[in-house]
From TrEMBL:
Residues 54-77 have a biased composition (Basic and acidic residues). Pfam families: Flg_new_2. It comes from Pseudobutyrivibrio xylanivorans DSM 14809. This is Bacterial repeat domain-containing protein. Residues 129-144 have a biased composition (Gly residues).
Length: 1195
């Protein structure tokens, strides 16, 4: 081995050892004392464990102060090694009791793990954390010598020992350590859960009964493990009905369930009597109801029935039958309708029976129904008198058998006068009530008496309570109360609502009041209704009007508005926020008011009308024709033209074709039919006299527009490459391609094409091996746009060819070896190829091109160049592939000097041209560049590599203070950075061009043309961010704040990208083809800080976080394909938290990461340095070997 290498190894070893010793000097003299462990204590703890019993796995201690290694979990029976014990803390043994509780075996004064199990955390039989009691379920330990308390250790009073042994080691029965806990999650509503076994062992079958409340169905039932980092679902098996079972896993589990209210169907009400009807009028839903329409309802909903009977026929009964077979009472309400409460079952039938006569007798004795549902009537209850007798029953109500004055209706509402009295009702069927002498006399029958009326049981409610539960939605103008309360527009209704629309109430001048009360519960009645008085709307605003004038014909102004106001056209459904000072609005009638705020409803309204001033038509203000179909000046067949004129009102129109009026074309718009092709269009406008009633104008005025057109054909259809490919046919030997009728092809996207093309020049290109195709123009439609079409490439050139020299310059005995009959060759300069011979082809001396001949499905291959030497010359036989070289002819010094002078004269403005590209450009391109760059200056850069997508990019060209003009073929791409906000750089101009322009556009530019790319950046005030976009920014900021602590906003900015071809309009780009990199300079107050910066981008309603791609503390670099608004955010660098003592010696010694690395990882450092040295020596050896070999070859 090299002696120098050994010396390097020894020197490196000595350096590393010295550094390691110096950095660990404190460890060498003090660390041994710090890591000294009480070995006797550990041995005593191990000897005090419970005999031969198997030690259970310890639970991890909670709290940041109790550090434990998390690299590998302890297996059962495994004791902690000495290296894992904290040198500054006494060892702690975690023990698990037989009922699942876990504690720590404490250490008494003599090192014994004895003591009481009091107050240690564990789990009771329901799986909840509880407190151990007197060590009964603790770890079976030994008697402590001093009786000090241990943690969950079995004390002297303990009853149960681990592994089924008592304190004295006697068997106790089953091993309780194998049992697990099954618990039911708290807060489950509308489902009753019952479990067969709360403490099963592994593989036990546990049964669950999940019974939903009446009117509800079970929505979900899950069993999950609770003592694992990732809770796992336990498989459930449905046995029958509401019963399920599962197999107990090796973990505690928790059961969760949910229920959903059921919607039951309601049958269509029916009646057998013709001309009588019964139907569902409405369904009053309770808060949880999910019913929709009138054919279904949930339990507790109130179904209201509307009954209609014919003259002389009355309702006898309504029978509501549920699917359970039960019948439900339908009682009459104040609206003379009937209602019933929906049960927890489908309603199979609702049958109304009508009759013309049922005699009042004991069988049809009247009875009283309390609509409030109270068994004992209360003051305020609604009593309904009922009987099956028909028709024309009359009623009289009695209190303690004394007639109640005026009480002759079927419904009686109890008052204070009836307090303490029993109530009866007398039914009277008058003589001849049903006609034909039926009945023969008046019939009187009294009902049974109710219990004595008691006072109304009403809960109390205070104004403060009402204020606390009432919530106003000032924008939507609703009032809402919390779940336990209800609202009403009256204090006499029996039921209220959770929410009320109060727009109509707020619009009142007086009586702006609603009522609130506390709902009745199972243990307390409803409170009294308490009025809530609504405040008056704010006063209407006062503004003035500026009518629309000539310069802004469609818009006037509401002057004096503020941002706190809103307005709308009287015909519009919604309001729009006004602007400060004045608001520009269209002509029309407006309603203006102060908008609702977070503390006040919208104000009263005022009406204002914005009108047009009468503007007379003049010959100087000619009508203008505008194409509203597309923004193009050249109209085509099918376009709609519109006349615009700054005059009115009272205008009429007449359209003209060339100089002839078009019949029926008298509207403001005119659609161009096929008959207008190649003709010019104009319009004549006439304003009638005295259109404003004040003599303006004095007489009719006529003015004509300029002609537009002539009208052209419809633009060509958009076609695809596949459409053209499907119509191509190739003649591979002739290297010709043809296209079917109706289409044309070309080698360039020029103005004309052909039905066939010779492809030889295209096939021989190094790149851009494609042609163009399009659909030809027709009588009514223009040709389509050119589409780039790829063509088959030449196969690879033949290989393994060698040559033998000819005997003389004229002898045909030179050889090309390795040919076949499928190949062909020609001498350099020849016009055609000759078929080669199999194996060897005899030729004269010279240079030859050899290729594989064309077939019926392939073009001729690429060729290789071979040279056959003559033995009369001393030359080398070579084999090379076709290459392309560029040669520059030398010019005389005088010619060169004259050219330079001409170029200097031509380039007459400040433009950097290091590669002398200016003189290669056409005069049109030069003129265009001069117009663009004469003031802003710029630099010409050769960018012809953009034409080859496979080219490897060279060095990047940055766009900063001045534009960059990329010269590509015969055209130029000008990239300009419009930095409204300074300090922005585009590092790669090539990437900008590729990202914005397609390959087709770049190819088109290379044929001659100029395109401008403009990238504008600017800061944005937060208030100018649209509300929807700002909401996305806020949501994204909140989301990322959870991942990046102390995230703060630094400011908004926008990036706008647009381009235009020299004579066309600007087009905006929001998404690029490839990512574009931006470098932003930070403000001075944010430079040189330890903060991390990010960009939140919002594009198409989606937020994304972009990281800073550079390490410069003064800039932020991002790369993106989407451009709109950005938010710069920052977060301070968070230093890594130091570990506790004993976890990391490097942190103990001063948080020195370099020291820590060298101290602990010095072998890696050492061998890394050795490896680098070995590689260095190996490279030197290889270079020396190669150099010697070349010298030997040269000799």
């Amino acid at each position: 081995m090299d002696k120098k290498f050994l010396v390097r190894i020894l020197a490196l070893t000595m350096v590393v050892v010295l550094v390691h010793t110096y950095l660990n000097r404190e460890f060498l003299f003090s660390e041994a004392d710090e890591l000294d462990l009480n070995i006797n204590t550990i041995l005593e703890l191990n000897s005090d464990s419970s005999g031969d019993t198997e030690e259970t796995k310890a639970e991890e201690p909670k709290g940041e102060e109790e550090h434990r290694s998390t690299e590998e979990p302890k297996a059962e029976g495994e004791t902690e090694s000495e290296n894992e014990l904290n040198s500054e803390e006494k060892p702690v043994i975690l023990l698990k009791s037989s009922d699942g509780t876990t504690g720590e075996g404490g250490e008494d004064g003599n090192g014994d793990g004895t003591g009481d199990g009091d107050n240690q955390e564990g789990q009771d039989q329901n799986g909840q954390e509880g407190q151990g009691q007197d060590g009964q379920n603790g770890q079976g330990g030994q008697e402590g010598q001093d009786g000090q308390e241990g943690q969950n250790g079995q004390g002297q009073e303990g009853q149960e020992g681990q592994n089924g042994q008592t304190q004295n080691g006697e068997p106790t029965g089953d091993n309780e350590d194998d049992k697990f806990t099954v618990t039911v999650k708290e807060g489950i509503e509308n489902v009753a859960i019952q479990i067969s076994n709360y403490n099963p062992v592994k593989d036990d079958t546990v049964s669950i009964s999940a019974t939903p409340d009446e009117g509800y169905s079970l929505k979900s039932l899950t069993v999950k493990t609770t003592d694992t980092e990732s809770p796992a679902d336990v498989a459930l098996t449905h046995t029958d009905g509401n019963n399920y079972e599962f197999t107990q896993p090796e973990a505690n589990v928790i059961i969760d369930a949910s229920a959903e209210i059921v919607s039951y169907t309601i049958a269509t009400p029916t009646t057998a009597q013709t001309e009588c009807s019964i139907q569902i009028q409405s369904i009053l839903k309770q808060p949880e109801s999910i019913s929709d329409g009138s054919t279904n309802a949930c339990v507790g909903d109130k179904v209201v029935l509307a009954v209609t009977s014919k003259v002389g026929c009355v309702l006898s009964s309504i029978t509501v039958t549920a699917s359970t077979g039960n019948t439900i009472d339908a009682v009459k309400n104040f609206d003379n309708n009937y209602e019933f409460i929906m049960p927890a079952a489908n309603i199979d039938s609702i049958v109304a029976v009508f009759t013309d006569f049922i005699i009042l007798e004991e069988a049809t004795k009247p009875f009283i129904v309390n609509a409030n549902g109270n068994a004992i009537p209360q003051v305020g209850d609604r009593l309904t008198a009922c009987t099956h007798a028909l028709p024309n029953i009359q009623w009289k109500w009695y209190a303690d058998d004394v007639f109640i004055e005026g009480a002759t209706e079927q419904i009686l509402v109890l008052t204070e006068k009836e307090l303490g009295k029993t109530i009866r009702v007398q039914a009277i069927q008058p003589r001849n009530a049903a006609g034909e002498g039926r009945p023969g006399t008046d019939i009187y029958i009294m009902s049974d008496a109710t219990p004595a009326v008691i006072a109304k049981v009403i809960g109390t409610i205070t104004p403060e309570e009402v204020t606390a539960v009432t919530v106003y939605d000032y924008v939507n103008e609703t009032i809402n109360v919390t779940e336990a309360y209800e609202l009403s527009l009256s204090d006499s209704v029996l039921e209220g609502q959770a929410s009320l629309a109060i727009t109509e109430i707020l619009d009142r001048e007086v009586n702006r009041v609603v009522y609130v009360r506390r709902k009745a519960t199972d243990i307390a009645p409803a409170s009294e209704w308490l009025p809530v008085f609504l405040s008056e709307r704010p006063a209407a605003p006062t503004v003035s009007v500026e009518n629309a004038v000539l310069s802004d014909w469609d818009y006037g102004k509401l002057v004096g508005t503020t941002a706190a106001m809103e307005y709308k056209l009287t015909s519009d459904p919604g309001f729009t926020r006004a602007s400060d000072s004045y608001t520009r609005v269209k002509v029309g009638k407006y309603i203006v008011r102060y908008a609702a705020s977070t503390t006040a409803f919208a104000g009263k309204t005022a009406e204002f009308t914005v009108r047009r001033q009468c503007i007379e038509l003049t010959s100087q203000n000619k009508p203008v024709i505008v194409n509203i179909t597309a923004s193009r000046s050249q109209p085509v067949i099918g376009d709609t033209l519109e006349v615009q004129v700054n005059a009115g009102p009272g205008l009429s129109y007449q359209w003209y074709l060339n100089s002839s009026p078009i019949s029926g074309a008298t509207d403001v718009r005119y659609n161009l039919p096929a008959s207008t092709y190649n003709k010019r269009i104009s319009v004549r406008v006439t304003q009638a006299a005295n259109v404003d009633g004040e003599g303006h104008p004095a007489s009719a005025i006529t003015a004509s527009s300029d002609f537009v057109g002539p009208v052209k054909k419809v633009p060509g259809d958009s076609i695809s490459e596949s459409e053209i490919k499907g119509r191509l046919s190739y003649n591979y030997p002739m290297e010709v391609v043809a296209v079917s009728a109706g289409y044309e092809i070309s080698t360039g996207s020029g103005s004309s094409g052909a039905s066939s093309l010779k492809l030889t020049s295209v096939l021989d290109r190094n790149s851009a091996k494609y042609i163009y195709g399009r659909k030809k123009a027709s009588d009514w439609q223009e040709a389509s746009s050119w589409v780039k079409v790829s063509i088959p490439e030449r196969p690879a050139s033949p290989g393994n060819l060698t040559t033998e020299s000819a005997s003389s310059e004229t002898a045909v005995d030179g050889k090309i070896i390795g040919t076949s009959q499928a190949m062909e060759y020609k001498m350099s300069g020849a016009s055609s190829y000759t078929q080669a011979s199999p194996g060897t082809t005899l030729v004269k001396a010279g240079t030859y091109f050899v290729r594989v001949a064309a077939t019926g499905s392939n073009f001729a291959s690429k060729y290789v160049t071979v040279k056959v030497e003559s033995k009369t010359k001393k030359t080398d036989t070579t084999l090379k592939t076709k290459t392309t070289t560029k040669k520059s002819s030398k010019k005389s010094s005088s010619t060169k000097k004259e050219t330079e002078e001409e170029d200097d004269e031509d380039l007459d403005f400040d433009l950097i041209d290091k590669s002398e590209l200016w003189k290669t450009l056409s005069q049109d391109i030069k003129d265009g560049l001069r117009e663009l760059l004469e003031e802003s200056k710029g630099e010409l850069v050769d960018a012809n590599d953009l034409l080859d997508p496979t080219a490897i990019p060279g060095s990047k060209i940055a766009v900063n203070d001045m534009p960059i003009a990329l010269v590509i073929g015969k055209g130029v791409i000008v990239i300009e950075l419009d930095k409204i906000a300074s300090g922005v750089i585009l590092p790669d101009a090539y990437a900008v061009a590729r990202g914005i322009l397609t390959e087709e556009q770049i190819d088109l530019i290379s044929r001659g043309g100029i395109v401008e790319l403009k990238i504008a950046t600017d800061s944005v005030i937060e208030d100018r961010i649209p509300a929807e976009e700002k909401a996305v920014f806020e949501n994204s900021f909140t989301e990322y704040s959870g991942d990046y602590p102390n995230l703060t906003k630094a400011g908004y900015m926008e990036i706008n990208i647009s381009y235009k071809f020299y004579t066309h309009e600007w087009k905006e780009v929001t998404e690029t083809l490839e990512p574009i990199e931006f470098v932003f300079e930070l403000p001075d107050d944010l430079k040189n800080t330890s903060e991390s910066f990010y960009m939140i981008r919002v594009h198409d309603g989606q937020g994304a976080l972009l990281s800073d791609l550079d390490e410069d503390v003064n800039t932020v670099t991002i790369c993106s394909t989407q451009f709109s608004n950005y938010l710069l955010v920052r977060t301070p660098e968070v230093q890594l938290a130091t570990e506790e003592a004993g976890d990391d010696e490097a942190d103990e010694k001063g948080n020195n990461p370099i020291k820590f690395f060298v101290t602990h990882q010095w072998p890696i450092l050492f061998w890394g340095l050795v490896g680098l040295d070995v590689v260095y020596i190996a490279i030197r050896k290889i270079r020396k070997f190669r150099r010697n070999k070349r010298l030997a070859t040269a000799k």
